[in-house]
Amino acid sequence: MRYPQPHQLLDAAAAESGHTDFGPGDFREGLTVLLDSLERDGDLDPATDAAVVGDLRRRLVNRLQVEAYYREHPEVEDVIVEGPVDINGLPRTGTTALADMLSLDPQFRCLRGWEQHRPVPPPVAGGEADDPRRQAFIRMHEQRPAAQAAMHIFEVDATMEDTEILGMAFRGQQMTLPVAGYRSWWRRADLTEAYAYHRRVVKLLGSKSPPSLWLFKAPHHKFHLEALANAYPDVRFVMTHRDPAKVVPSYTSLVSTIFPPAAGERDLCALGREVSVHLREGMQRAIAERARVGEDRFFDVHHHELVADPRGTVRRVYEWLGLELKPDVAQTIFDWQDANAVGAKGAHRYTADQFGLSVDEIRSDYDFYIRHFDVAKED
Question: From 124, 197, 325, 334, which residue has the greatest number of CB atoms within 10 Å?
Fold first, then answer.
């Protein structure tokens, strides 16, 4: 077999860390499914194997270090987690822009990418700027191709997708690898234990770096809203919306640049079909689950409103949340808006056709979504 077995990765992580307690929650099933999907579905160049396996081992080491830290610092159990405010929806609908703007407000504690990558030790207030994990994260993103920078805004201290924390539970969406079989399993998986573990890591990260009101952002949260609400009973959701005829090919284009290099020519049409089905099923689940979670806990933001009136949109979000938007914070957010207007970092060019899709077909498949949220169609 090309990839290691789960027990081999577990043994390697234990040897590297010197610990053996991987903590609560079932992560082994997800790890097994992921490795199996890599074997069956993967199209990766063999030169990527060391990096791919290394990431999985790192997440297991992170789990071991989290439990060791809790044993040494039992007071972390008592850390307060307020909120969170959770931004989700279909990808490519303004989730990143909205999250980046709210991340500029110091009343929010952001879930930053660099601290997720290696959560132990937790960052210390006043020392984040010089944290070597942060500096390494900046260097990594400085190496991104210009085309990718045009597709996706990067702010080092903004709240980011919890890819790494859910990845430590091996219940992440894993849209960074060509593992269609794993994603099919994940869409229907129970993430109750995964989000309970998520809260455990969040408490650790916030233990030395306030404030306690958390801001999350992840389009993939729409797949498992009830599990997230079980872990965070006070969560409130901001859901963003956009014409799926724009969303699906745009996201497929982005994903195709995130996957590691393929051994041969990657089948972009197959990827387009998978992404379309994946996101459609996610939105079907979101509509059903938000009705059970409670519609009063959701605030809907439409992409065309965010683009046409970003200042007004942000003010409406704050008003709904019942939070104060202080004048100096508002000005910082508005300055960011001016500097990051659509196209400021270059144009992201794509078509539905290049991924074997058509505008009419996508809108037909997502008609339930368009009608449910009165989504505007774009030219």
Answer: 197
Task: Give the separation between CA 352 and CA 133, rounded to whole angstroms.
Answer: 38
Which residues constitute the domain of residue 247?
A: 6-373
In a domain, 379, yes or no: no
- Residue type present at position 37: S
At 12, which CATH number?
3.40.50.300
Structural domain contains residue 110: yes
Q: Is residue 141 part of a domain?
A: yes
Could you tell me if residue 1 is inside a domain?
no
Residue 165: which of 126, 97, 220 has the closest Cα?
A: 220
pLDDT in tens, 242-263: 999 999 999 999 999 999 999 9
Token pair belonging to 308: 């046409």
257, 259, 254: which is closest to 48 by C-alpha? 259
Region for 167 from its dihedrals, namely left if φ exceeds 0, alpha if ψ lies in -120 to 50, beta otherwise: alpha
Q: Please give the C-alpha separations between residue 103 and each of 109, 141, 330, in angstroms, as whole numbers.
A: 8, 19, 12
pTM of the predicted model as reported, rounded to 2 decimal places:
0.95
| Cβ(99)–Cβ(159) below 8 Å | yes
pLDDT tens digits along 101-129: 999 999 999 999 999 999 999 999 999 99
Radius of gyration of the chain (CA): 20
pLDDT digits (tens, 9 = 90+) for 329-347: 999 999 999 999 866 566 6
Buried b (16+ CB within 10 A) or exposed e, 280-311: bebbbbbeebbeebeeeebbbbbbebbeeebe
Phi, psi dihedrals of residue 128, rounded to the nearest 5°: -65, -40
Q: What is the DSSP string of 159-216?
A: B---HHHHHHTT-S--TTS--HHHHHHHHHS--HHHHHHHHHHHHHHHTTS---EEEE
Gap between the Cα atoms of 353 and 249, Å rounded: 9
